[in-house]
Amino acid sequence: MSQFAINILFVGASFAIYIGIAIWAKAGSTKDFYVAGGGVHPITNGMAIGADWMSAASFISMAGLIAAGGYANSTFLMGWTGGYVLLALLLAPYLRKFGKFTVPEFIGDRFYSRTARMVAVVCLIVASLTYVIGQMAGAGVAFSRFLEVDATTGLIIAAVVVFFYSVLGGMKGITYTQVAQYIVLIIAYTIPAVFISLELTGNPLPPLGLFSEHSASGEPLLSKLNEVVSALGFDAYTAMVDNKLNMVLFTLSLMIGTAGLPHVIMRFFTVPKVADARWSAGWALVFIGLLYLTAPAVASMARLNLMTTIYPDMAGQVENYDAAAANPIAYENRPEWIRTWEETGLITFDDKNSDGDIQFYNDSTDFSDRGWSGNELTVNNDILVLANPEIANLPSWVIGLIAAGGLAAALSTAAGLLLAISSAISHDLIKGAINPGITERGELRAARISMSIAIVVATYLGANPPGFAAQVVALAFGIAAASLFPVLMMGIFSKRVNNKGAIAGMLSGLTFTLVYIFIYKGWFFIPGTNNLADTPENWVLGISPLSIGAVGAIVNFAVAYLVSKSSEEPPREIQELVESVRYPKGAGGAVSH
Known about the structure:
Blueprint: H1 3-24, H2 30-35, H3 42-53, H4 56-69, H5 75-98, H6 103-110, H7 114-146, H8 151-201, H9 206-209, H10 221-231, H11 244-259, H12 262-265, H13 274-292, H14 295-310, H15 336-342, E1 347-349, E2 377-379, H16 384-391, H17 396-434, H18 440-462, H19 469-493, H20 499-520, H21 548-565, H22 572-582
Antiparallel strand pairs: 1-2
């Protein structure tokens, strides 16, 4: 059986399971559509949260980023895992106690303001739509390789599948579909990692293999990797970061952005009791940890495999390796996996000196005396995890499995984000502001229509994302960090912050962050600035657009506090409400509607 047929078999079987679950779990009420009826078991919910959490960015891009940047890009790993802990400890149980369907509904009720609720809707849509672009882009990358179609066609296929089980089942269908998607993606991620760890180190556990000896050279794996990349002009894989302020702010932005992302927060509204919300958080951390403990090993091993594939003589023991005397493979002898990925356009080769060999150096390496300068092979970071089984010559069924896993990761998070957008439009905007008297049937219809429109918009934007998957996602986390996280924290832990402060804080944090991002990403031009490129030399205090969300959150907190202090206190009943949410004495089941 051909590799294409195997891929079709694995992907088709997983899609059939998802669609079958959607038909079985069809939502019959708004409660089913928004919170899966409120009766999801904590273990089931934890697994669904894991799938919702481990997006295309986690499955496809994160290991690719760490592989390319080494220690410098470990911020993604630290920020996302740390942020989940913040969410589980500081927000989830309290929001479940409050007992509402959506994040904007909580903000509207806590700050006794329809305007605050509408501002929260805007913040939610901007953050979620930015995030979902990365998921659709990730699905396009996976489809373009494994189903041998172009990225646009892949996006359309992904959109059709998501449309079916999301629009039909709502949160109920998405929850049980995500359980299946988690099982698919975690098996797909860990099995190739085990094979590769065994091959490179003899250790079947990838997290331990990362710190084991490299079998071919007898050196510690990370030391061998440092040796290889340094010889080719790259920074050492474990090199420290020069701009520690930017690293800290980026990690913080990912952490608090994580805790403010509404599509994950909504998951804690689906369980029967507050205690179940806490158990869901614990189980989710276990399920998430399985992938996140494996990712650094996958990244390091993928980078070493890639380098030693191009330079086979570097695989064994090498002393004082001279990059100028390197002996790369000839282009005509390139392995089959490079040929396959070249067809997608995600690997390209430019023979700058016309010698027929693949020169793979740091772009800044100067070989002008040879008639060319820099690297001849361009490898898209997003393909490393997907290509790992082929690089390591693993069986065909493993390649088919990882195809299904990559698509499961992208589609599971996309569905959760689209539901968050749909709920904000139908429940918060239409029912909360435009038509409060809408019937439940009418609201359910509005939710399905708004989700359909969101899928179309996300598919269109996913065709041309502003960066590869994890970069786009990082921008979404920054937006959520600057707009939603501060107001949620103040809503739970401060009785003094009022509606004026909350609105001013959200608008200030969101505006500040978006303007900074738009300027340095080149999407917004300020007269007289003369080409503010997205480079560390131009960033204010060396703070990148991906890190600015943490500063935006500080702006949000400061503005909300100052405005609240200079205006009237919240009404007594609101202060008592905050007290009851923070100290849920004897609260087994929070009030829902």
